[in-house]
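Hi,

Apologies if this is the wrong queue. I'm a grad student, and the batch job for Beta-mannosidase-like galactose-binding domain-containing protein from marine sediment metagenome produced an output file that my downstream script rejects. I'm not sure whether the problem is my script or the file. Here is the sequence I used:
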Amino acid sequence: MNIKLSLDKEWQMQSSEKVSKHGETISTIDFDPEDWYKVEIPTTVINGLLQNKKIEDPYYGLNLKSLAGYKKEVTIF
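Support response: The file is valid. Your script probably expects a header line. Output copied below for reference.
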């Protein structure tokens, strides 16, 4: 039996600080990622946050300075 799994759609991301499940659980097809951010790939963490309007455009004004806190956490895709 061949199963085809598309990896180019329906990606989501979330900070590891907000994920209570382990990798072996979140990597299963049955995992329901509640409150995760939907993202279009390819992307980066910053672009994913921008896609979801969680940050201001880092290329505008001094907005880049406000992103310092994001480098302290791990984000899971």
